[in-house]
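Ticket #4471: structure export looks truncated?
Reporter: QA, pipeline team
Priority: medium

Steps to reproduce: submit the single chain below to the structure queue and open the exported record.
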Amino acid sequence: MLAELIRDNQPCVALTGAGVSTESGIPDFRSASGIWAQYDPYEVASIEGFRRDPARVWEFYGRRLGVLAEARPNDGHLALAALERRGLLEAVVTQNVDGLHQQAGSREVVEVHGSISSASCPTCARTESRERVATLLPLPVCAGCGAVLKPDVVMFGELLPARTIERASALVRSAALLLVVGSSLEVWPVAGLPGETLVEGGVIAILNRDPTPYDDRASLVVQATAGPVLAAVAGLLEEGRLT
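Actual output as written to the record:
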């Protein structure tokens, strides 16, 4: 059913959340064992927390960088990249900051919450790569002016970059199918993107382990782990395998 929806409803855009990366060993945020069960997000992931205690924020992000150094794309990431190569997926709009979609080979990726692949200086805008930042821990400072670097992620209390959310909005409005993968659809403004698809006459399909606020408006809901399902779908959509 999901493979047929993708085949028959083009263009298709994917909207992905933390659930697509858990199979790569990256914890999600809101489950009982997720990151926010261990950390206060307003202490380690808010702009106010960063301004108040940047060392505490970098203690948190230093651990995340360590996890990401070992993480590799899983079957879900690879399947989405394969669908893009076959012309069946226009783009990936992702809430994730881990860069695994790009590592898997996806070319059109809109990172609405930024990326942990770099950090920038709030004072002079100098940017350093994740690899360079890792060598500057526990408290990375700017080589140009000495200010503490900030991870290039959108923190609580910050606005999403205007161009990025505008691009995401344009993609979902033009999508005949929005494929939601591994997102609880609870964080705004991204949580409103499926509604934009529906308003423009498109349909949505949801692949997530837990219920979402849009389940009753989706054409298909699959409550399962993303990787095996997407791998099976990509296999079925190979030339000649789906009739």
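Status: closed, not a bug. The export was complete when the record was re-opened. Leaving a note from the reviewer for reference: The first helix runs from residue 2 to 8.
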